[in-house]
Amino acid sequence: MPLPPGMWPEDPTPYELINCQKCSLALQRSRIVWGEGNPNAGIFILLDNPGAREDKSGVPFICGTRQTLYSAAASVCLGKNDLYVTYVVRCRPVKKYDKEQARSTCINHLQDQLNTKIPKLVVCLGNVAAQSYLANSETEVKDLRGSISFYNGIAAAFSYHPLAVRRRPILNRLFLEDWNLIASYYRNEILPSIGASFSH
User: Fold this and answer.
1) Which among 46, 54, 88, 156 has the fewest CB atoms less than 10 Å away?
2) What is the rounded distance in angstroms from the CA atom of residue 103 to the CA atom of residue 95?
3) Cα angle at 119 between 180 and 93, to 5 degrees?
4) Of 165, 166, 132, nearest to 151 (Cα)?
5) Which of 23-37, 81-95, 134-148 is the least confident region?
6) How many contiguous H segments (helices) and E segments (strands) does the chain have?
7) For residue 5, what are the CA distances in angstroms to 33, 67, 85, 88?
């Protein structure tokens, strides 16, 4: 089925992981969404989960999260060729599940990708993405946004989840500021701050 105009293409799930049973989301998912955009992009965007790419009848559509993300990226002249979107958990949750177990298990997929692809920048959108990426449940993006720092050798930036921006329009100005920072670093117009480290 063709994608709606402007929707970023999906990156196929590795064959050996299509039937992954490592977390409780395997019991409720309809499928795995591995990523979207360009898997060889210089910027990796990390969200909490894939949300919905299809409606109840299976027709692809651009959800509110994606609309806000696409718009912010376009405002700084970045698009699907510059960006790769992936998630802490690769399945859309539809009911209660063991969040801590799923997130701590699935984040290892991201680490494997980063070890292979080595993007220039990882951008964590929302507290779940930031907490999972940094392995720190106390982390909040409001305290991390506004700068670029290195974590285990890869530059990282942090901002609000696109859905939070939709629900709280007051965040839009800050969200766009962060996207200007992301684009400036990507284009070598600024330098990152002092490095940091984390481990899983």
Assistant:
1) 54
2) 15
3) 85
4) 132
5) 23-37
6) 6, 7
7) 19, 12, 18, 26
If pLDDT is split at 50, 70 and 90, which confidence band does 119 have? very high
The CB-side HSE value for 119 (13 A sphere, CA atoms) comes to 30
CA 11, 61, 159 angle in degrees (round to 5)? 70
**What is the Cα–Cα distance from 147 to 194, expressed in whole angstroms?**
10
Kindly list the domain boundaries of the chain, sorted by start residue: 10-186
Residue corresponding to tokens 């990282």: 156
Long-range contacts of 52-59 (CB under 8 A, 24+ apart): 52/92, 53/7, 53/10, 58/1, 59/1
Q: To 5 degrees, how large is the angle CA 162–CA 168–CA 172?
A: 60
Confidence grade of residue 198 (pLDDT, cut at 50, 70, 90) = very low
Measure the CA–CA gap between 25 and 93, rounded to whole angstroms. 7
Q: Is beta strand 121-125 parallel, antiparallel or unpaired with respect to 154-159?
A: parallel
pLDDT single digits (tens) 132-171: 999 999 999 999 999 999 998 899 999 999 999 999 999 9
Say how far apart CA 153 and CA 168 lie, in whole Å.
Answer: 33
